[in-house]
Amino acid sequence: MNNQSERSERYYNLYKENIKRIAENSSPYINSFREEAIEKFGQLGIPTRENETYRYTNLDTFFNHEFKSYFMPVASDFARAEEFRCDVTDLDAHGIVLLNGFYPTITDKLRQLPGGIWIGSLNEASKKFGEKIEKHYAKYAGSDSDGLVHLNTAMASDGVFIYVPEGVVLKKPVQVINLVQSEEDIFNQHRSLIVVEKNAEITLIICDHTLSPTKFLTNAVTEVYVGENSHFDIIRVQNEHNNAGKITHTFIHQERNSNASSNNITLHGGLVRNSTHHFLGGEGAESYSYGLYLADKFQHVDNYVNVEHAYPNCTSNQLFKGVLDDMATGAFNGRIYVHKDAQGTMAYQKNNNILLTDDAKMDTKPQLEIYADDVKCSHGATVGQLDDDALFYLQSRGINKREARLMLMFGFAHEVIQNIKVEALRERMDNLVMQRLRGELSRCASCMVKCG
Length: 452
Fold this sequence. Notes:
Number of helices: 11
Structural class: alpha/beta
Strand content: 35-45%
Number of domains: 1
Distance between the termini: 41 Å
């Protein structure tokens, strides 16, 4: 048996050891996908560099590790998670806390917000909203080449469910705080489903934090349905330590004249791999994909973006920027696919990177695959260092070299941050990015639980 087979077998065994406990907390419908999914995972395995979408990312550091257990919470875990508070004090949001993939609130695991919006535990929702779950669950997340998506379908324990009825506009964002905490090394997975009916609007903020120094591996899948004429924004802020591996898969399905944006901001993490899929499934749909990643030491950040134009007169825009220091590595793999009937498509893609040392490395691969003839599409990528002329100009105005470098890097990064529509979060991200560039940002700078 080769290393790849041994590695896949390890997670197959983890499934067999834990599926009974996982399944007893889920609905029969969600459980009905598990056996087929684990078989697909068995066929595909853990992605290697031979997989084109993982070409620049080596998962061995985390997936070859022997995780002793698959986390299942007890009451004391719930109590500890509920003590957490986010320090973005001006962020007026409806809050949800996940602990190692579980919705830990002992009571009110599903609660109703103004306008008939429901938020809470996916497990709980699967029992109370069977019709919605059956219409949307596992309908958008799929892959012919990524076994990790199927591993999540097989083993996902809990996650977040959000339902926004037709015509409802939620003015305050929903904030999901993902906490990872354990006394031992753990592997966990969570699955989220967001359903935004026609003519509705919602903003979702996801904050990833680690609260203890052990080794963690997270494999998360989020499915989003955006109905006709609806608006949906998702902002993910990742600030975890160097022993944390975070793999996210976000699938956004859009209907006619919908508008959706995704923004992945990676401040810290040992291995981060964000995979975002926008499917423009109706005429006039618009999608916007943003990303900012700051890495140093031996950190690695990989962003994969796939935008599929399936209908005419749709628009998409991708903007990803990175600053890499020390021995850090990064990857951007962006794909725009235009179907033959998707006439009138406008699609743009840009990836810009700054390397602060000779040892930092960035791989970038923008792609266009176009089968329609009436389109406007462009892509571009740059990898370089700070502009010497701009640096000289600032120094000539009396600004010391260090501050001049920081100003240039901050201006470079702010082009992504300015697309955050929630003002309090945008201001907080500006502050955190400047701290990160100054080298002042600890692994959990925005967490009130200081774990050293």
